[in-house]
What does this fold into?
Amino acid sequence: MRERIEIPLSKKKIYLKILGCLLFVVAGIWLFFNASLYLDFPLKLFRNPMVIKGVGILSILFFGTIAILHSKKIFDKNAGLIIDSSGITDNSSATSVGLIEWNDIFDIKTKKIMSTKFLLINIKNPEKYIGKAKSATKAKLMRSNMKMYGTPLSITSNNLKYDFEKLEQLIQTEFKQNKKVREQRV
It folds into this structure.
């Protein structure tokens, strides 16, 4: 490991996400209070005011929760990601667990879903990291990631002041260097 690398959170990206979420919350409120305007909607399902109000409530709850989670990151003074001889300390998202030790990582893969790319951090003992979750919701999200991707840990540059391709290259390079050091010790 060369030296400690700190990648800051991008407050600009976080503010934009909060703004987008708040627009969906406002749209949800509008749908809830104006459900009767959709009585002539072409799709029969959406002519029902209860369905429209339900969509409004779901929008308010879902995007409101995301806005609240992102708002906490605005006041976070810690680096979004730290890479050092111990491992990768992830503080970039709501599902971050802190330090991911190099010794626990056996592979890192890139995954793309729609336009979002992220790194899947494959670890030897997923339960160790799920156990680090500070809330039941966070643990549930991590278990969901485990079912879908085979690992509870993923890192993206969405909240970081860093380009994803550079992040991917940096983490892969550091992982390979640490792997060589560990193999030399054995």
